[in-house]
């Protein structure tokens, strides 16, 4: 089966100002605690790198309660790029919130990193969408499908195509895969690999597009209208990542506790209408 590869130009990450109104001292990367005045209260600053949706929105939601505990989060950037783990490792920020455990494990292995996960927060199931069809059964033979070209998300995309019964992948012990690992095309399809940032803007050129939930939401698209997607038991929960030295930091522990609360879980369910799934289950 024909496979297309498109080399997309990387889109530069956009640095964003903190989503929280605050004033006072600016932060530094020398490891010292920094204080800022927020609504007249002196709070300890926690520096962060967090994706825009839903990550920074979840932090913004818990910010008032975090303020009550004496802390405030200053988000340095909401435009994820390949430097975020390095910046977390070298102490430029206190934590990042944009990845799942398999991606962190891979980064640590490649870069001799020591970063750790201090809390699973939510799952963004990767899904298959279409501007032309409303169900997977409608997708014809010979359909064109675009998938992310980064190793982890390409693996996830190929796995849901396999679960749908459209392809069969060869055995792999890693979370990395490409179209070269497809053993059989059970359904005749044509797959194109493209940078996930580019997929939404090119989605109408294909019969089916597969992308991350946060990318779909950020583009203003309805992430609940999928043809098929990962299940709620996906191992790709988004996590709070920091250094071992900061793993027991009381401010970070307070943040994780709030993000994992039932109150935040209810907020996730209501705001994202099932497109984003909280790790915390609601009792009752």
TrEMBL record:
GO cellular component: membrane
Organism: Ruminococcus albus 8
KW Signal (keyword) present: yes
Protein name in UniProt: NLPA lipoprotein
Endpoints of the signal sequence: 1-21
Isomerase keyword on record: no
InterPro entries: Lipoprotein_NlpA
Membrane topology of the entry: Lipid-anchor
UniProt family annotation: Belongs to the NlpA lipoprotein family.
Keywords for the protein's UniProt record, in alphabetical order: Lipoprotein, Membrane, Palmitate, Signal
Compartments, record wording: Membrane
């Amino acid at each position: 089966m024909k496979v297309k590869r498109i080399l997309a130009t990387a889109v530069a990450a956009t640095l964003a100002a903190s989503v929280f109104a605050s004033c006072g001292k600016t932060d530094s990367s020398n490891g010292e605690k920094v204080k800022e005045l927020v609504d007249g209260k002196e709070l300890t600053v926690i520096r962060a790198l967090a994706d825009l949706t839903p990550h920074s929105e979840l932090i913004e939601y818990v910010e008032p309660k975090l303020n009550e505990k004496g802390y405030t989060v200053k988000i340095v950037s909401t435009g994820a790029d390949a430097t975020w783990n390095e910046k977390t490792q070298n102490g430029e920020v206190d934590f990042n919130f944009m990845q799942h455990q398999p991606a962190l494990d891979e980064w640590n292995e490649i870069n001799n990193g020591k970063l750790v996960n201090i809390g699973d927060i939510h799952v963004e199931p990767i899904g298959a969408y279409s501007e032309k069809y409303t169900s997977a059964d409608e997708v014809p033979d010979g359909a064109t499908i675009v998938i992310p070209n980064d190793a982890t998300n390409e693996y996830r995309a190929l796995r849901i195509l396999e679960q749908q019964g459209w392809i069969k992948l060869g055995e792999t012990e890693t979370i990395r895969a490409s179209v070269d690992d497809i053993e059989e095309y059970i359904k005749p399809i044509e797959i194109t690999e493209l940078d996930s940032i580019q997929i939404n803007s090119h989605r109408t050129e294909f019969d089916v597009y597969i992308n991350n939930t946060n990318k779909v939401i950020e583009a203003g698209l309805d992430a609940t209208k999928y043809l098929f997607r990962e299940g709620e038991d996906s191992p790709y929960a988004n996590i709070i990542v920091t250094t071992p030295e900061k793993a027991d930091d009381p401010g970070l522990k307070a943040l994780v506790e709030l993000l994992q609360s039932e109150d935040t879980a209810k907020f996730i369910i209501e705001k994202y209408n099932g497109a984003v799934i909280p790790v915390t289950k609601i009792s009752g």
